[in-house]
């Protein structure tokens, strides 16, 4: 996702919101590139809406990569 992360307060709000979401496995917040990457089983629009409501900023969904279940099973 792409959004403006101007100050430490915005960063903390985004981080707290992501940590409270149990369906997310991990997240990465890149302040200089204004990007937030999340991993897990979730609906991207739901995550974007939650962050938008909390931070009150525009959120853009960039790219969705889906992991194939066959690929994960072959690694075992």
Verbal overview:
- The protein has three helices and two strands.
- The chain has 76 residues and is α+β, with helices and mostly antiparallel strands.
- The protein has one domain.
- It has a two-stranded antiparallel ribbon with strand order 1-2.
- Helix 1 (8-20) packs across helix 2 (44-55).
Can you tag this structure with a few keywords?
alpha+beta; two-stranded antiparallel sheet; 76 residues; 3 helices; single chain
Topology:
Layout: H1 8-20, E1 24-30, E2 35-40, H2 44-55, H3 69-74
Antiparallel strand pairs: 1-2
How much β-strand is present in the residues? Answer: 15-25%
If strands are numbered along the chain, what order do they take across the biggest sheet?
1-2
Main pleated sheet: 2 strands, antiparallel
Helix percent band:
40-55%
> Gyration radius, to the nearest Å?
13 Å
Q: Helices and strands: which structural class?
A: alpha+beta
- Cα-to-Cα separation, first versus last residue: 31 Å
Question: Based on DSSP secondary structure assignment, what is the total number of beta strands?
Answer: 2
Q: So what's the overall shape?
A: globular
User: H/E order of the elements?
Assistant: HEEHH
Ranges where pLDDT stays below 50 over 5 or more residues in a row are: none
Query: How many domains comprise the coordinates?
Result: 1
Number of helices: 3
Summarize the structure in short.
The chain is of the alpha+beta class. It has helices at residues 8-20, 44-55, 69-74, and strands spanning 24-30, 35-40. This is Heavy metal-associated isoprenylated plant protein 25-like.
């Amino acid at each position: 996702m792409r959004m403006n992360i101007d100050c430490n307060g915005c960063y903390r709000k985004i981080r707290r919101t992501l940590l409270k979401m149990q369906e997310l496995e991990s997240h990465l917040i890149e302040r200089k590139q204004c990007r937030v990457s999340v991993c897990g089983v979730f609906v991207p629009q739901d995550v974007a809406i939650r962050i938008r409501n909390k931070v009150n900023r525009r959120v853009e969904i960039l790219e969705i990569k889906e992991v194939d279940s066959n690929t994960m099973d072959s690694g075992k």
